[in-house]
Amino acid sequence: MSGGFCNFVAKLILKHSKTMHSDPKQCLYCTNNETLHDLMIEFAQLRVSRAFLFKEQTYRGRCLVAYKDHVNDLNELSDEDRNAFMADVAQVTRAMQKAFNPVKINYGAYSDKLSHLHFHLAPKYEGGPDYGGTFQMNPGKVYLTDAEYQEMIEKIKENL
Predict the structure, then answer these.
(1) Which residue, 64, 105, 118, 142, is the most exposed by fewest CB within 10 angstroms?
(2) Which residues pair with 49 in a beta bridge?
(3) What is this structure's pTM?
(4) C-alpha span between 1 and 4 (Å, rounded)
(5) For residue 61, what are the contacts with CB-CB under 8 A and spacing of at least 6?
(6) Phi, psi of 34, rounded to the nearest 5 degrees
(7) HEC secondary structure over 45-91
(8) Cα 46 off chain centre by
(9) What is the pLDDT of residues 113-143, one digit of tens each?
(10) Domains with residue ranges and CATH for the chain
(11) How far apart are alpha carbons 120 and 41 in whole angstroms?
């Protein structure tokens, strides 16, 4: 079967599935509202996504990559768009690795309540918070000055 036909069938199945779909008019990423800007700082537009630095920095260098359009799940993308999105995620993690040198970067793609395709990228450091375990979504412990956020963003952007 051709790739176009397979993509058509996959979209048709998804359209009639019972998975959760959120309304773009109420989506944090689509509305680009104050809540989003209270949580994170957008620092780059990539191939098919937007990159953000979390303001809560318990995990030094923590970022998020959100798909540019309102898509509920990775499996809704065409192969080409999925590959481009994952390339964006990899590009940001490579930049984070060079900028902050964590031991590991944890990936999280939960979307239970906010159904817009995005990946949390949480750097982990030996002896640091939750090393060897799952990162917390929002521990609410470490906030920086505007100048410190800007310095982190510049380090990431130098390596994008």
Answers:
(1) 142
(2) 67
(3) 0.84
(4) 8
(5) 53, 96, 99, 100, 102, 123, 152, 156
(6) -60, -40
(7) ECCCEEEEEECCCCCCCCEEEEECCCCCCHHHCCHHHHHHHHHHHHH
(8) 12
(9) 778 999 999 999 999 999 999 999 889 999 9
(10) 20-158 (3.30.428.10)
(11) 14
Count the neighbouring beta carbons within 10 Å of the beta carbon of residue 141.
10
Q: Which two tokens stand for residue 110?
A: 């939960």
Q: Do residues 135 and 103 lie in contact, with contact meaning Cβ atoms separated by under 8 Å?
A: no
List, for residues 54-85, the tens digit of each pLDDT value: 999 999 999 999 999 999 999 999 999 999 99
Q: Do the beta carbons of residue 110 and residue 40 sit within 8 Å?
A: no
Cα–Cα distance list, 84 to 30, 48, 55, 87, 130 (Å):
19, 6, 26, 5, 30
Of the candidates 86, 91, 85, the residue with the CA atom closest to the CA atom of residue 49: 85
Q: Look up tokens 């930049």; give the residue.
A: 95
Q: Which two tokens stand for residue 112?
A: 């239970």
As a whole number of angstroms, the longest Cα–Cα distance in the chain is 55
Looking at residue 110, its amino acid is Y
